[in-house]
Structures are given as structure tokens and as C-alpha cells.
Amino acid sequence: QVQLVESGGGLVQAGGSLRLSCEASGNIFSRNAMAWYRQAPGKQRELVARIDSGGSTNYTDSVAGRFTISRDNAKNTVYLEMDSLKPEDTGVYYCNAPVVRGPFTYNYWGQGTQVTVSS
Fold first, then answer.
1. 52-to-62, 73, 96, 116, 119 alpha-carbon distances in Å
2. CA atoms of 51 and 100, how far apart (whole Å)
């Protein structure tokens, strides 16, 4: 069973920084891609950043150059460093682990952590 536990959200002024953490259990971390999604009020959940097992990353355009996703395989933890935050970054941020087993992909989610950016 895969479990993801996020931490690090909060309230910050525009231009500030936050660092989110997601610790994974279930013996899948080192060989699995990990991702961060967010959901703003009234909007669909969207992919923010992704890191594969080899450390390659990609970002949605709106956060590229401001957010950095990284992973520490020894700690089974993925991070999202968020700098130059904007009010439009406000939302609930979710950690995601897409686990491939044979022909199927099982998506595991954390409980979410609230990020609020004030103007």
C-alpha cells in the first residue's frame, strides 16, 4: 500500500517562498516518478511539476522558472520549492505517485496541503 504525506503549506505574501514536502511509503519511491498537482477554488486539478526516477523534471508553463521539484531517494521524499509566489498560485497542492503495474497505472494521492498567497 502506497501512502503519501504532504507538509509545508501555509499563508505567504506575494513574492515570498514556501517549500512543500511529500514523504512516501510503500517501497515504490526510488523507481517511481513523482508529481505535484494543485487545485484552485472552482478549477480542475492541474499538474504543476513532475520528476522521473532519473531526476528529469518538467513544469507547467505558469510555474517554470519559479518552482523547483526535487527528490531525496534516501528519505523517500519529494519536494516542491516555490519562489516568487503569486496570488494565482493559491490552491490545495497534492503529491502524486503514478505507479505502473503491468498494463495499468495506479494513481496515489496525498491528503493535500493548502497554499495561500496574499496580494
1. 20, 12, 12, 27, 33
2. 15
Q: How many CA atoms lie within 13 A of 28 on its CB side?
A: 21
**pLDDT tens sequence for the chain (119 residues):** 889 999 999 999 999 999 999 999 877 777 889 999 999 999 999 999 999 999 999 999 999 999 999 999 999 999 999 999 999 999 999 999 999 889 999 999 999 999 999 99
According to DSSP, the β-strands at 91-101 and 34-39 are antiparallel
Contact 95, 47 (CB under 8 A): no
Of 20, 48, 18, 53, the residue nearest 34 (C-alpha): 53
Q: What angle do CA 25, 31, 37 make, to 5 degrees?
A: 65
